[in-house]
TrEMBL record:
Pfam families: NTP_transf_2. InterPro entries: NT_sf (IPR043519), Polymerase_NTP_transf_dom (IPR002934). This is Polymerase nucleotidyl transferase domain-containing protein. Residues 14-66 form the Polymerase nucleotidyl transferase domain. It comes from Streptomyces antimycoticus. GO terms for molecular function: nucleotidyltransferase activity. It comes from the Bacteria.
């Protein structure tokens, strides 16, 4: 796996420490590391796979464990993104954004894309993935159609009132919920992984006022 030096050094340091935790049966990477296109600005998305008996005790000690694995600057749980198993951290220096998602071995195979296995005990992660194929999520076009024009009207009222910061926030949401996913589908990419879409989106000329 081709990684920037900072990311490589982090993994070289942290993986041996994670392996010493008895309840951990494997570590995998998702996101840009799994897709093979990380750059120096990429964060690291780690999946820490725990055996069934150790899962609950580990969940109560997540920040403590992470602090024993690396130099933890800040960390908090991911309820705000709908994933309470996630710990979002800043580690370093040098500073690096690392997400640690703790999952049961029985839940590891439930996925929309294949992660990259960094380390596993007795090939348990490989067997779990082999037994259950990834299920790519599909973009619900009707869901978008049912909401889009109401959203546009809402944004137009904010623009008419001169509430430019609200308009900026609305456009950012529209990019995440509609434009980015649609562009990903158009480009043949998974819409769930459309981060950084401005880098890969095909360009085409736009002629305003013409069909």
């Amino acid at each position: 796996m081709d990684l920037p030096p900072l990311h490589r050094q982090f993994l070289d340091d942290v993986l041996p420490r994670i392996q010493r935790e008895a309840g951990v049966v494997g570590v995998a990477a998702s996101g840009s590391l799994a897709s093979g296109n990380p750059d120096i600005y990429s964060d690291i998305d780690l999946i820490i796979v725990i055996d069934e008996m150790s899962f609950e005790p580990v969940m109560t000690r997540r920040l403590e464990l992470i602090g024993s694995w690396t130099d933890l600057v800040a960390g908090f749980t991911g309820e705000h993104v709908g994933e309470p198993r996630l710990i979002i951290t800043l580690v370093g220096p040098p500073l690096l954004h690392v997400d640690f998602k703790f999952v049961r071995l029985t839940d590891f195979a439930e996925r929309s894309e294949d992660p990259h296995i960094l380390w596993e005990r007795d090939e348990e992660l490989s067997r779990a993935l082999a037994q259950q194929p990834a299920k790519a999520s599909r973009l619900d076009l009707q869901w978008i159609e049912d909401r889009f024009w109401t959203w546009v009207h809402y944004g137009a009222t904010k623009l008419g009132r001169g509430e430019l910061l609200e308009v900026a926030g609305f456009l950012a949401y529209l990019r995440e919920a509609v434009l980015g996913p649609l562009a990903a589908v158009r480009a043949g990419r998974r819409h769930a992984a459309c981060g950084g879409w401005s880098r890969w989106l095909p360009t085409r000329p736009v002629h305003c006022g013409r069909p």
